[in-house]
Amino acid sequence: MDCKEDSKSNSGGPPAEDKSRDDVRAQRKPNGWQKQPGRAKPKKESVLQLSTTPNRLPEQISCCSAEASPPLHPLFHSIAIKISNNVIRGANSRCVKLLGAIKDFVQSYELPPGTSWKHSLSADLKASMDLLKTQCPFAISMSNSLDFVLSSLHNMNEGEDRSVNDLKGDLLKMIDQYVEEKVEKAVEAIVIYGLEKIAPGDKIMVYSITEAVIALLLKAAENGIHFELIVIQTPESMEEISELLNKLKNPILNKVIEVNSVNFSNALYRMVHCTKLLLGGHGLFTNGGVLAQAGSGQLALLAATYNKPALFLCETFKFCDRSPLDLFSLDEFISGAMWNQNQPENSKNDEEPFEPKIMFDVTPSTLVTVVITDIDMLPSNSVPVVLRVQEGRSLVKNAS
Amino acid sequence: MTTASKESQYMALLQQLETSLKRGRYVRSHELATRTLRLAEKYVQSDSWKNAEEVMQWLENTADRLTKAAVSESAPSNVLKRLIKTVQEDFMTRKNKGKLHTISRLDSDAKVDYSEELPDLRSDILGAILDLSSELENGAESIAEDAEKHINANEVIMTIGRSRTVEAFLKRAAKVNKLEVIIVKCGPFYQGKDLAKILSKSKIKTTVVNDTAAFSLMSRVDKIVIGTHTVLANGGLKAIAGCHQILLTSKYFNVPVLVLAASYKLSPEYPFSAEMKITNRFVSPEELIDYKNGQMIDNVQVYAPVFDYVPPELVSLFIFNMGSHAPSYIHRLLHDTYTQG
């Protein structure tokens, strides 16, 4: 999908690093990317906007910060544009691409004289990321990986005997390890657990297709499990569906599985026949809610009504220490609604209806049968436990 | 006009209606109902019948014929079946005119002989048809009169797809109170956008979203107002695809659901199953799938049904042009509108 462009931008080396910040600012065009969030601002007041706290509105953030802080580093700028235009899709690739950019940033980072490498890098990275958050939707997987980078930076031992290059190498290694263990291996682990749940003769309805979902279905088909696949399509998810169907398009696999497709509105028509609902998660909250493609909640509810289990696949690096009660408190909702409006022309006209594109929703834990993660199959409420174990906090410590 | 030409007139009308039903050449069920009524009017005006029995027989046969032409469309047969009941009633009043208190109940066991020739019956039936046609014409307006009763100030109303009845209802409500409308577009036609344009032209705050967003937005919605294709005999709906899921969501969030329906949408049919295989209509999925992906989808079966069955428990209230009723009351309404058995 987007690999070509991204590899270009990522391997482009340190492009504008040697330019002074003033130069970069001077190059900024008045109507360039910096204006984007402002453009996307819906003209009409609506329930959808009443919910957004005014100080979080992106255009306000950029207004306040535009003069005070440096412009976004070009490495992150290209990511911001790709994410807000949905060129980089999916929580996994967003996270990996961000980490790639952070790696380039670290590699090309020049230490201002008289400061400690660790602290000044950490501060600059944080500032860049705060700015990035105003430019594009920031997925949970992205903020988790950022937290990881910042905390490993914080925990680094900056002794006398260690040079900046040593530290740099350590950090880059840690990031590589994170990508391998938390993202790539996690998908493999989910596939192993998920295969237990796919039985011959199953009729599996899939929605909110993520990397893990594709990997699991592909593996099941390769293992020769005969199953029927019911793909729920929406205009927004055609990319993922194409990817899935392209991978399954193979003379041997075609004999093993049978593929049906219905539009989202017609899900009821096939729900009666299916045996389970398989969904990919983009994030998991401490109250057990699962963030997934918009419409997942509805399908999970439909599945619950017809007594079909709803299985979510979610990697642990998408677990999140928040518990939103509804979607309106989520950054991703706001950004989804604001950034993905493809009607800059129309929104000028007051007589045009407001048309937000809502990309995600939160499925409450009562509608989630099980979450298949890379560490185990869990009820969705056990997120806090996983987070506590991951952070190494013990029960006693917590209690006191 | 000679009798023969009148006869050929209604035969031609019948044939036209049947053909357009078979070929799917119609836009709304309202149009079908009006055309059916015009057909019945022409028949009654003609000399091809002598007594009430013949009229009823013809109405029943025509209802069957039109149902067979397009199983998913119930409006023509609903109109004709309703006329059967009207003919029966007119016959009884005419017959018992002058007699004192001998009006026999229609649903009594005694078999009534409808073959008696009554000279004034024709004008009675034509009068009833005229009433019905004015009811059809003003259906949306008389439903809209209820708008103020149900929609309060500053409420957020969600509607699904496009319905002219809902359009009139919301416009009427907006005259009295400020309200905000969220329109949910559903596949395969995604017609909601047209309604959104119309409503925002008349200065109603309008938001359009895809049906995937209904779950996220439901917590902000005060009421759901929808139109329907058919109201089934058990109080369930045959409505556009996507309704079932969205109304399930509204149940989950305890949002009341108002269903607006003109009387000709009330059908004496019972649903077969949640699938509605028998009475559903399937269209080409060309709107849903890009043919440029033809290579990729050559092994995929794509279904595009048009209707969803919605069970009565998901509906809070029906607003008909003859009043508002709970789903549990539908059987009574059927009893009043159609003949039994």
Automatic annotation (TrEMBL), chain A:
<keyword id="KW-0963">Cytoplasm</keyword>
<dbReference type="GO" id="GO:0005829">
    <property type="term" value="C:cytosol"/>
</dbReference>
<dbReference type="InterPro" id="IPR037171">
    <property type="entry name" value="NagB/RpiA_transferase-like"/>
</dbReference>
<dbReference type="InterPro" id="IPR000649">
    <property type="entry name" value="IF-2B-related"/>
</dbReference>
<dbReference type="InterPro" id="IPR027363">
    <property type="entry name" value="M1Pi_N"/>
</dbReference>
<keyword id="KW-0648">Protein biosynthesis</keyword>
<protein>
    <recommendedName>
        <fullName>Translation initiation factor eIF2B subunit delta</fullName>
    </recommendedName>
</protein>
<dbReference type="GO" id="GO:0003743">
    <property type="term" value="F:translation initiation factor activity"/>
</dbReference>
<dbReference type="Pfam" id="PF01008">
    <property type="entry name" value="IF-2B"/>
</dbReference>
<dbReference type="InterPro" id="IPR042529">
    <property type="entry name" value="IF_2B-like_C"/>
</dbReference>
<keyword id="KW-0396">Initiation factor</keyword>
<feature type="region of interest" description="Disordered">
    <location>
        <begin position="1"/>
        <end position="48"/>
    </location>
</feature>
<comment type="subunit">
    <text>Component of the translation initiation factor 2B (eIF2B) complex which is a heterodecamer of two sets of five different subunits: alpha, beta, gamma, delta and epsilon. Subunits alpha, beta and delta comprise a regulatory subcomplex and subunits epsilon and gamma comprise a catalytic subcomplex. Within the complex, the hexameric regulatory complex resides at the center, with the two heterodimeric catalytic subcomplexes bound on opposite sides.</text>
</comment>
<comment type="similarity">
    <text>Belongs to the eIF-2B alpha/beta/delta subunits family.</text>
</comment>
<feature type="compositionally biased region" description="Basic and acidic residues">
    <location>
        <begin position="16"/>
        <end position="26"/>
    </location>
</feature>
From TrEMBL, chain B:
<dbReference type="InterPro" id="IPR000649">
    <property type="entry name" value="IF-2B-related"/>
</dbReference>
<dbReference type="Pfam" id="PF01008">
    <property type="entry name" value="IF-2B"/>
</dbReference>
<dbReference type="InterPro" id="IPR042529">
    <property type="entry name" value="IF_2B-like_C"/>
</dbReference>
<dbReference type="GO" id="GO:0005851">
    <property type="term" value="C:eukaryotic translation initiation factor 2B complex"/>
</dbReference>
<keyword id="KW-0396">Initiation factor</keyword>
<dbReference type="GO" id="GO:0005085">
    <property type="term" value="F:guanyl-nucleotide exchange factor activity"/>
</dbReference>
<dbReference type="InterPro" id="IPR051855">
    <property type="entry name" value="eIF2B_beta_subunit"/>
</dbReference>
<dbReference type="GO" id="GO:0005829">
    <property type="term" value="C:cytosol"/>
</dbReference>
<comment type="similarity">
    <text>Belongs to the eIF-2B alpha/beta/delta subunits family.</text>
</comment>
<protein>
    <recommendedName>
        <fullName>Translation initiation factor eIF2B subunit beta</fullName>
    </recommendedName>
</protein>
<keyword id="KW-0648">Protein biosynthesis</keyword>
<keyword id="KW-0963">Cytoplasm</keyword>
<dbReference type="InterPro" id="IPR037171">
    <property type="entry name" value="NagB/RpiA_transferase-like"/>
</dbReference>
<comment type="subunit">
    <text>Component of the translation initiation factor 2B (eIF2B) complex which is a heterodecamer of two sets of five different subunits: alpha, beta, gamma, delta and epsilon. Subunits alpha, beta and delta comprise a regulatory subcomplex and subunits epsilon and gamma comprise a catalytic subcomplex. Within the complex, the hexameric regulatory complex resides at the center, with the two heterodimeric catalytic subcomplexes bound on opposite sides.</text>
</comment>
<dbReference type="GO" id="GO:0003743">
    <property type="term" value="F:translation initiation factor activity"/>
</dbReference>
